[in-house]
Specification:
The protein has three domains: 3-85, 2-Layer Sandwich (Uridine Diphospho-n-acetylenolpyruvylglucosamine Reductase, domain 2), CATH 3.30.43; 90-216, Uridine Diphospho-n-acetylenolpyruvylglucosamine Reductase, domain 3; 220-322, UDP-N-acetylenolpyruvoylglucosamine reductase, C-terminal domain (Uridine Diphospho-n-acetylenolpyruvylglucosamine Reductase, domain 1). The strands form seven sheets. The chain has a five-stranded antiparallel beta sheet. Helices cover 28% and strands 25% of the residues. The chain has helices at residues 3-11, 45-58, 105-114, 130-135, 176-182, 201-218, 240-243, 258-264, 293-311; strands at residues 17-23, 35-42, 62-65, 71-73, 78-85, 90-93, 96-100, 117-118, 139-140, 143-144, 149-155, 160-164, 188-195, 197-198, 233-234, 255-256, 271-272, 275-277, 285-287, 320-322. The mean pLDDT is 95. The two termini are 32 Å apart. Strand 11 and strand 12 form a beta hairpin. By secondary structure, it is an alpha+beta fold. The site of flavin-adenine dinucleotide (FAD) has 33 residues, from strand 3, helix 4, strand 9, helix 5 and strand 13. Flavin-adenine dinucleotide binds at residues 29, 63-71, 85, 101, 126-129, 131-133, 135-136, 138-140, 177, 181, 188-189, 219, 225-227, 320.
Length: 330
Amino acid sequence: MSIDQAHTRLAAIASLQVTRNEPLARHTRFGLGGPASIFARTGKEEAFVAAARAARESGLPWMVIGLGTNLVAADAGYGGIVIRYDGAAMEASGLVVRAQAGTALQDLVDFSAGEGLQGLESMTGIPGNVGAAVYGNAGAYGTSISDVVGFVRYFDGDAIREADNAGCGFRYRDSVFKRSHLEGRHWLILSAEFRFQPGDAEALQAKAAGILEIRNRKYPPEMKCAGSIFKNLLLAAVPESARADLSTSLVKGGKVPAAWFLEQVGAKGLAIGGIRVTDYHANTLYNAGGGTAAQLRELIGELKRRVRERYGLILEEEIQYVGFEGEPRL
Ligand SMILES: Cc1cc2nc3c(=O)[nH]c(=O)nc-3n(C[C@H](O)[C@H](O)[C@H](O)COP(=O)(O)OP(=O)(O)OC[C@H]3O[C@@H](n4cnc5c(N)ncnc54)[C@H](O)[C@@H]3O)c2cc1C
């Protein structure tokens, strides 16, 4: 199907807002990325599912995005269909909260802490929506969203299904949903049910406020970035030769911070064009103004090369690329 035909088909779906040549820079926190040929968004679950069906049947490349806080979109844009789901209803009963995938994760964190529901308070300040947090098994300060997921409702291309926690196949920053995407199957997360422990609302809110203050210093709200660029490393995957320099105090929960290796190879403060590594955290790259996605890719490639050459380690990106298909792997 041509882009024009796909546009006509999507535009006929009720409650779906469809635009042509929508700049992805408007939908990514890096503020980078050229136009998506077709951009479709909706707050209605039926329209989200119908859009995905139509996108699949079009034979064109297609993908789902959330709030764009973990995405690097190519300067040339994306020659296909981008779908965004904004459904953001939440409902609570006892220790259980159900949230639609488009709910801001922060709203779920604030709501649960305020209701005295313990489990997500350490995840305050992680930007993005609930669907993407489940997809990437987001986490911070020793908590991952997988710790509280009861069930996830998702659309696998044929039908709406439900996966329990085990069925989500969670791993570090990974899930069955992310793997489906990497394998080209694009399962859509529609909503999720979270199960909490009883707690004290004031204590949970105070804990969250303390964490938020630290996070806001590290990632000021206006910073055009994606948090950490690279995943931390499982100690077991670090070659013996690279372990020699490592102090045991660096290892937390069986993982070594990628930032430590990056710091040893002089990453802090490095810049290519408008893209910089912060002076205080070697795994945080940001668009200081006027940067391009090509510069960001180049800087990421340079950092990977340095760590590979010095330690024999392949750093793996936590961020997701959009529109770089066909370009050589970094
Ligand atoms: C300042 C800052 C700090 C950060 N700190 C952390 C942190 O501490 N811990 C952490 O884990 N992450 C962190 N991140 C990364 C980011 O917040 C998470 O990856 C977040 O979950 C991305 O959410 P999003 O809505 O922006 O998703 P996007 O970046 O838009 O998309 C991410 C992926 O999710 C998929 N996706 C989105 N919605 C759906 C859906 N409904 N169904 C299926 N797939 C979907 C997309 O296809 C895409 O591949 C940080 C980012 C920033 C900018």
